[in-house]
Amino acid sequence: MRLLLLTSVYPSPRRPVKGVFNQQLVAALRAAGDDVRVVVPVPWTDLLVTRPTAPAAHETRYRVWWYPPRMAHRTHHRWMARSVLASVTAATRDWQPDLVAGYWTHPDGTVALHAARRLGVPGVLLVGGSDIHLLAKDRSRRKVIVDTLRDARRVITVGHPLRDAVIALGVDADHVGTFTRGVDTARFHPGAADHARAALGLPLDRPIAVWVGRMVPVKGVDVLLDAWHAIARHPSHPLLCLVGDGAGRRSLERRAADLGDTVRFIGNTPHAQLGDWYRAADVNLLPSRSEGIPNVLLEGLACGAPFIASDVGSVSSLVVDSCVLVPPGDRTALADALRHWAEIPPMSRRVTVAIDDRATATAALRRQFADVIGATDPHLQPIA
Fold it and tell me: In 229-353, where does DSSP find H-type helix?
């Protein structure tokens, strides 16, 4: 298959760890024999706060996405279209895709469907979580989000709860499927915690909790730091490692100032090295305010790390023994869960669970793409 992916949730030279899961999906599709090209709108604000730190990805076109800051989010698809459709034209000048996919419903997906109409091919939406759970609650954006979902030839969501949320917005259930991303089991697998800790320079005699992600409000790191006070002075002297970076880091560092050496800000880490962090950790924390099926939990489970996470999106479908769910934003419930975790004997803090490898998960997604390509629907109408 020849596939064109349009998404701003993708690694760029300025944000090399943003949307790594989409880069992994593209790599898996290519490994399966598909010809995949990617157009990445890069927010102009990235030009102000970051410098290029990584090379451009293979067969990927980056285009600065200009839009008015902090206003008129419901019109951002128009600004994105003006910014990136020239790159779509360039990418398809001598190459016609069978299908255009957009990850993130609005504005990315809206523009991807516009590109599909221009090319005369079906458009598919890949829906990740907050684009429905949070953005669709914004009354100014809800209509364009719902129109985009209805306009797609197929909507494919991360997990069944998100599928239910899309259907609840009025999308025909027959046109909504699900997918999982799977994990790279060559990198994410069980292993000796002491070896991983030695490789990372971590103490061998302290309980270690890890959080992995982007330091943005939806990830709830503020809630985590507030709750961490409940165990910061526990006799076992637990350590919280925050692996990642983002616009909120300075604020979070100030918030953690009185937690001393019980919290470490690790910064961005290459995805290939995350397996050691999960193997080193006694628990994987994810207090997000919104999620789909988080890769960080799948990868952590594959390495044997149980989790304490917010009960959002499809997280509940991942729960196994030793995993704990708490209400999103509930500092007290999270603190209680952390206190209980701190009392668990070290040998009881690991889990064994089978996680689909990426090739298996990608094969299921490819079958849905193939179904769409075999049943093109020409009636799609543009969104105002």
Answer: 249-255, 274-280, 295-302, 331-342
Based on C-alpha coordinates, what's the Rg of the chain?
A: 21
**Sequence letter at residue 143:** K
Q: pLDDT per position in the chain (384 positions), as tens?
A: 999 999 999 999 888 888 888 999 999 999 999 999 999 999 998 888 767 777 777 789 999 999 988 777 889 999 999 999 999 999 999 999 999 999 999 999 999 999 999 999 999 999 988 889 888 888 889 999 999 999 999 999 988 888 999 999 999 999 999 998 889 888 999 999 999 999 999 999 999 999 999 999 999 999 999 999 999 999 999 999 999 998 899 999 999 999 999 999 999 998 889 999 999 999 999 999 988 889 999 999 999 999 999 999 889 989 988 899 999 999 999 999 999 999 887 656 778 787 878 888 899 999 999 999 985 444 444 454
Structural tokens at position 317: 């479908």
Q: How far apart are CA 338 and CA 223, in angstroms?
A: 12
Sign of CA dihedral 69, 133, 8, 102: negative
What CA–CA distance (Å, rounded) separates 380 from 377?
7
Q: Is the peptide bond before 235 cis (omega within 30 degrees of 0)?
A: no
Distance CA 6, CA 38 (A): 6
How many C-beta neighbours within 10 Å does residue 271 have? 20
* Residue 125, both tokens: 């939406």
SS3 string, 120-170, reads: CCCEEEEECCHHHHCHHHCHHHHHHHHHHHHHCCEEEEECHHHHHHHHHCC
CA atoms within 13 A on the CB side of 312: 25
Q: CA–CA distance from 218 to each of 71, 224, 242, 260 (Å)?
A: 19, 12, 15, 25
Q: In terms of DSSP H, where are the helices of the chain?
A: 20-31, 46-49, 76-91, 110-119, 130-133, 139-151, 160-168, 193-200, 221-228, 249-255, 274-280, 295-302, 331-342, 358-373
Could you give phi then psi for residue 273, rounded to 5 degrees?
-95, -5
